[in-house]
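Q: For a teaching handout, I want to show students what a protein-ligand complex looks like in token form. Below are the inputs, and the small molecule is heme C. Please produce the holo structure.
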Amino acid sequence: MKQGLILFCIAIFLSCQSEKEKKPENGNNIYKPSEMAILMSKMYAKNAENKQLILSGEQPLEFPEEFTNIHIAKLTDPNDRTEAFKDYSDYYLSTLNKLFDDSAASLTVKHNNIINSCITCHKSTCLGPIPKIKKLYIK
Ligand code: HEC
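A: Here is the structure, written as tokens, with heme C included.
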């Protein structure tokens, strides 16, 4: 019971957008997401789209160049961009590249490898969206 509560607190602490961060300090109450948060939302949408394409037997055709911005997009917390973060970013981009090469693995496997790479990074930086990201797996 106690342990559950502690885990819960850790999860709240680690989830990348605490309520405090959502409240802007300059008095206007429009929450402004970081460049990285916006990029992540696009990555999420693209993967949801790819999942549907693959499920209907089609192949995603174009490598989304914009997603290489994962290396430069401004983070809510700039301290998140550690050496490990850069490695996770490269790992993500390499799994994304494989979706567009002509290697033998099935599109489903390639897609799920991308989702694994999302989750690998999120486990170390940003736990909050993991349940949502898991929905992108093709079962
Ligand atoms: C290299 C690490 C890394 C990888 C890889 C990564 N993420 Fe993220 N993600 C983050 C961080 C850090 C944030 C918080 C960004 C911020 O607040 O500036 C985030 C935020 C998010 C959010 C919340 C965005 C919002 O509106 O606040 C979603 C959804 C998300 N990521 C989905 C994904 C998906 C889907 C993938 C894979 C296609 C992915 N992420 C890959 C680190 C990563």
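A: Two things your students might notice: DSSP finds six helices and no strands in the chain. Residues 33-56+80-139 form one domain.
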